[in-house]
Every structure is written in C-alpha cells, then in structure tokens.
Write a structure and sequence with these properties.
With 318 residues, the chain is α/β, with parallel strands linked by helices. Helices cover 39% and strands 15% of the residues. It has ten helices and ten strands. The chain has an eight-stranded parallel β-barrel, surrounded by five helices. The protein has a two-stranded antiparallel sheet with strand order 1-2. Helix 2 crosses helix 3 (107-121) and helix 7 (249-265) crosses helix 8 (269-278). The longest helix has 17 residues, at 249-265. It starts with a strand and ends with a helix.
Length: 318
C-alpha cells in the first residue's frame, strides 16, 4: 500500500488508516481478526483506535478496541510492523458516562492514560498519540509539554490532535515552536465529500472546513486525516439516510457530479470519495471502517483508481 508522510513527524504511514472503533465490542473477535488480517495482507499498517473505544456499546466501558488489537498483534507477532495510533482525552470517568465527562488533557490524566493504553495494547510505545478532544480547561502548554515528555521517554513517537478548531491548532503550533517541543503532526477531523450546513451541530465532533484544508495545504508540517468519510454508508445504502446536517441545496449537485465521475471511472461512489481525498493536494488520509471483508475490499480497491485533473476539478467545484 502507498505510504504518505505524517507531517513534521518524519514518519511514513499507510494511505488508508483502518478504523478499529468497534473491534472487540460490536464487531466480534473473529470478524475483527478477519478484517485486520485482510488489511495487513493488502499492505496496510496504520491502525486507528482510542482509549475510550467503544464505551457506548452494550456492556463496554472503553478500552475494548485496544485490548483486541494488543491480542491480535501478540498472536500475529507483528507489533514492529504495525503503526498504532490511539487517543486520550475523551474517556468517561464512570461507565455509562458521556463525552462531557472526559478525562481531559492535563499532565496527570495523560500520563495515567498512556500507561493504561500501553498495557492494553501489549506494547511499550505507540506510534501516534492523539489529543482526542480539545480541553479548553487545560493550557495547551501543559498538554504539549506532557506529550513532549512522552516522546522523549520513548512511550510515544509522534503526536496529533482531533476535533480541534483551527485557531487552537495554530496556537498549539506557535507554542511548540517557541518552546522547541513536539508539535502536532496531524489533525483528524470529521470530513466527507458533501458539505455540511454552515450551522450544523456535530456535538463534540469538529467538521473540517475550507480554512483548515487551506491551512494544511500551506503548512506541510501537519497532515489531515478524515474520519466518517463515507457517512456510515449513506452514499450507497438505500436504507441509510444522509444526516440532516447535509440536507441543503448543494448536496444534490455534488451527488450528481459524484455519480457522473463514478460512471466514467467505473467505481462506486465510496471509491470515488476515497480516491478524491487521496488525490487532494496535499492528500487527506481517510480513516476507513468496515464490518465485512466485502466492505473493506471495496475501500481498498479505490487505491487503484485514478481521477483526471478535469474530474478532480469538477468534483471540487460542484
């Protein structure tokens, strides 16, 4: 699988990250192993999880995904070949708690969380550690200095952020530069082909906007990753409605162009979206998810598609 640079980290990652959110909970062990093996056999190494995945599923408290990944890597003897990303800062303090009861991004919370994640993953380091949700009650200096200490100790190789407003990303970058400490090498945001309404409310999730995309285009030190790129199958499933946030006039026009390009190229709508992201300049790395090998293969097959400059322009301008 194609490799892409991870911003300022000096590391290379797979063009697709495999989202492991439901692994070990909603997605059972047998299916999770099958998908992990499939992705690995396709040349993928970039695994995306978090310390709170997936506390909202029945009978779960968070950490189930990390536990399963740790078991899979141990049984497959492949930890050194995988690029493992996990997150801190959005775990409920008690079972059944909501995201508003997050652990935060203070020094003590991060130091406790990384050790717990390492134990569940069965490793002594993670390749990428995300600040999962911005913690406005903790100074960015404290968070970044703690991350820097984890990098220097060898527990973490690179750091990123998720669900941050652009102003906070810029502020964090300035702090890292001024203090000569580790900086965020990537940002993971909600992002898909359709534009959400300007007043769309995604709760704790932050949708990437034009300003963030332009910032990443100008600043090669940070790369963007897209979660929920396919809107949980809404583009192709007849019984899956688009979220209300995407119900506005431009949606039908963009869908029409998307379908035109899919017909021209001979790909599915999902495949065109993933190919479009990867052929951005600079590329956006999709975090793909699947509950079956058929879904995963459809995503992987988009790596072979090539969109012409004219098609990219049409998709962008719609």
């Amino acid at each position: 699988m194609r490799r892409l640079p991870l911003g300022s980290a000096g590391l290379q990652v797979s063009a697709f990250a495999l989202g492991c959110l439901n692994f070990g909970s909603k997605t059972d062990k047998i299916t999770s192993y099958r998908l992990l093996d499939h992705y690995r056999d396709a040349g993928g190494t970039f695994l995306d999880t978090a310390n709170n995945y997936a506390f909202w599923n029945k009978g779960c408290v968070g950490g189930e995904s990390e536990l399963l990944l740790g078991q899979w890597m141990r049984e497959r003897h492949n930890r050194s070949h995988m690029f493992v990303a996990t997150k801190v800062g959005a775990k409920p303090r008690f079972p059944g708690g909501g995201f508003e009861n997050k652990e935060g991004l203070g020094r003590k919370a991060i130091e406790q969380a990384i050790d717990a994640s390492l134990q569940r993953l069965g490793t002594d380091y993670v390749d990428l550690y995300y600040a999962h949700i911005d913690d406005v009650h903790t100074s960015l200096e404290e968070t970044l200095e703690t991350f820097d200490s984890l990098v220097r100790s060898g527990k973490v190789r690179a750091v990123g952020c998720s669900n941050y407003q652009l102003s906070r990303v810029i502020e964090a970058s300035n702090i890292s530069r001024e203090k000569n400490i580790v900086s965020y090498s990537c940002i993971q945001q909600r992002y898909t082909y359709l534009h959400p309404k300007s007043d769309a409310d995604f709760g704790i999730q932050v949708s990437a906007d034009v300003e963030l995309l332009e910032y990443c285009s100008r600043n090669k030190d940070i790369v963007m990753l897209a979660y929920s790129p396919l809107l949980h199958g809404a583009y192709t499933r007849q019984n899956e409605a688009f979220p209300i946030a995407y119900e506005h006039p431009s949606t039908q026009k963009r869908l029409s162009v998307l379908k035109e390009v899919a017909t021209e190229v001979g790909g599915t709508l999902n495949q065109i979206i993933l190919a479009w992201m990867l052929q951005h300049s600079p590329p956006t790395i999709p975090v793909i998810a699947a509950s079956s090998s058929k879904q995963l293969q459809e995503n992987l097959d988009s790596l072979t598609l090539h969109l012409s400059q004219e098609q990219m322009h049409r998709l962008h301008q719609a």
